[in-house]
Amino acid sequence: MDSNSIMQKITEEFIVETYELLDIISGSILDLEKTNDVELVNSIYRAFHTIKGNAYLAGFTDIGELAHKLEDVLSIVKSGGIEVNSELVDYYLNSTDTIKIMTERIESGDETPVDISSLLKVFDNITACAYQADLAGLQQEDTLPADLQPEEEIAEGIEVECDDQEQDGTHVFGDKSKTDDFLGSLAKDSFRPLRILVVEDDFTSRQLMVTALSRYGDCHVAKDGLEAVQAVIESYEKTPTVPYDLICMDVQMPNMDGTVASKTIREIERGKDIEGTEFESVIIMISCVEDPKVIMKACYQCGANHYFVKPLDLNQMTRQMQKLGLITLEQSCTSGS
Asked: At residue 57, does pLDDT exceed 80?
């Protein structure tokens, strides 16, 4: 299947799923002002999260951007920073109708753009007001390197150096005899196929990632953080061990999110005395979220090596894989040809 056929299939799936999610959202929003139930808010949030991810990956950035703003405000609602009122409900109903119109135009082939600037401005203002005090408190509470400004690093991603290393980059094992055989089974070869785990709750996103990464090796998938942790555990139970070289982890997922899953995987590696060495898995977080708090949590508390913001630039992903030592320059050039 060529790239055009893949994108056509993704577009068709996007249209069908978006209509289904908008129906769910419309009914839920009408009930939201009456009940303000936590599960109801979560349901709407998950629906917009899925629309957002699908839209970015399918190339419909306007829909993705609007869904992103709607999701941001719902995050604040969930945390108690905003109370739901009739005005907010009206904005959400208007936005839902707008996304439906945009989807209908995609389906019919009508390329006439829909002006969403006023809606984006409304939600930007809501978010800015709600986060102002919260971010001020965050800057005082979180411990980060003095010269790091997360807001300025988002576009290209954030690389994290492991703390568990000497200045020369050599890891010090607590008990070398306990790990010699284990590490021998993990000896990395730059030219062998990679073992890759794609962790993503959205089908379309998983499909795109697997299609892009399968040229570098064997791709497995997990639909949430729990499945990812189980896959990692099982990889170490095989004889010989077959741990993952690369784990691409979505941040926001049901059951267990990407930050918790990443931290758990690092704890598993710590128990095997390979955390912070060349033998640990490379974890790349991939999300639409641009909130600096999420960036810091993902990279500094959970041990991720890099963070990409959707829509994912696959060429940039390839360059980063080369920089992290996962693929060679020759492989990188071949994939881009």
From this structure: no
